[in-house]
Amino acid sequence: MRLSPSGTWTFFWIVLIFNAMGCIQSIRCKPRSFRESIIVLEVNSSIDSNPTSIDESSNVVLRYRTPHFRASARVLVPPVAGKETWTVGWIQACNHMEFYNKYGNKGMSSWELPDLRDMKIKAISDSDGVNYPWYGNTTETCTVVGPTKKDTKFTVSMNDNFYPSVTWGVPVSDSNQPQLSSIRRDQSFTTWLVAINQATAETLVLQTIRWRMQLHIQIDPEKPLGQRARLMEPVAQEQPQILGKNEPIPPNAMVKPNANDAQVLMWRPKTGDPIVVIPPKY
Q1: Which of 86, 160, 161, 279 sits at 20 to 30 Å (Cα–Cα) from 261?
Q2: Global pTM?
Q3: Is residue 22 in some structural domain?
Q4: Which domain holds residue 236?
């Protein structure tokens, strides 16, 4: 059968449309991977607006409590066809730490992360020390076990703050005479919303947040207990950044040790060699 020129074009378009429909059908029928199907519906992150509070109730230590960093995410996982188990949650690492407590002209104590300080690593895990690599395993994570027939929606959330104790007296001295004169702290963190396949260890970074906590407390050890310390800055912390482009997770953020177990308390006198006051746990 011979077709007229107009008939040829009509036949061409019919074939093209059917081919396109076939492509669409093949795309729709192909099962989507977990990577393609998981949806982050909403992410929120903030640092509380209240200033750092100072507690002078003890005649042995000064305590302070910083405002909380908070992060939460609503996540949707469509039906999982296969027998796969995925955990979605928060992983956090410390990228930078300065934590100095000055004691007049005697010297200073400092909590340090040696490998981070010496730039041997870019970040260190801030896991709870039990559920590596997760920050925690209560509100911080959710596990989806396939196969599932319906959408799975959930919220994962976490919070973090500092609540340390700093001795009024020089930490390497037997005397508890108040000599603490200044506290400075500056720490930076990266927090990731992550999905991990429990069988294959495939790791998907869904969201990246960067945040920082700073403080400067001035202390007059000559004043009576309860009147010595004053918060200088900042009254309000910088708010976290939810990044538009995700950052990869450094290897040390996924494994032992965590920051709490790796940190060491040093005494750095004005003259003389540094002394290890509290060695690392790990």
Answers
A1: 86
A2: 0.86
A3: no
A4: 37-278
